[in-house]
Design a protein that fits this description.
This protein is mainly alpha-helical. It has a single domain, classed as Rossmann fold. It has seven helices and five strands, in the order βααβααβααβαβ. A three-stranded parallel beta sheet has the order 1-4-5. A two-stranded parallel sheet has the order 2-3. α3 packs antiparallel against α4. The longest helix has 16 residues.
């Protein structure tokens, strides 16, 4: 399971009611995050003036996940995805486009709280507790 930044954040923020919605999807499964998610998460201590203890908690939580790195194959998947989304006249925030490409590249479901940014991605196996609009 590729875990989107926003689902990881539910557990980090201890948002137990929303995190509980995703536990059944994650429990007992190998968990992965994209390299982009790591960058997004590492930005938080700077934006929110975290102390060393909170930063250490973030690093510790990330140890439960395997980070899927950038590689040449991922760049090709991202380029094709970007082109196809543009052709369909659909826009995605660039971090989300890399996360979607990572899920496609590794042929794994994406667990996200942000259905609207991913639901138009062709061939993406999307798991979200957010209702379809």
């Amino acid at each position: 399971m590729l875990v989107d930044t926003n689902v990881f954040s539910l557990f980090m923020k201890k948002d137990t009611s929303r995190a509980a919605l995703y536990e059944r999807h994650l429990q007992g499964r190998a968990l992965y995050v994209s390299f982009i998610t790591v960058g997004e998460l590492y930005r938080w201590p700077f934006e929110r003036a975290w102390g060393e203890e909170k930063k250490a908690e973030l690093v510790q939580r990330l140890r439960s996940y395997t980070v899927l790195p950038f590689d040449d194959a991922l760049a090709w998947v991202w380029a094709e995805l970007y082109f196809n989304m543009k052709r369909m006249n659909k826009q995605m925030p660039w971090p989300d486009s890399w996360i979607a490409a990572t899920a496609l590249r590794h042929n794994m479901p994406l667990v996200t709280e942000n259905r609207k940014d991913f639901e138009h991605v062709p061939n993406l196996n999307l798991i979200s507790e957010q209702p379809k609009k």
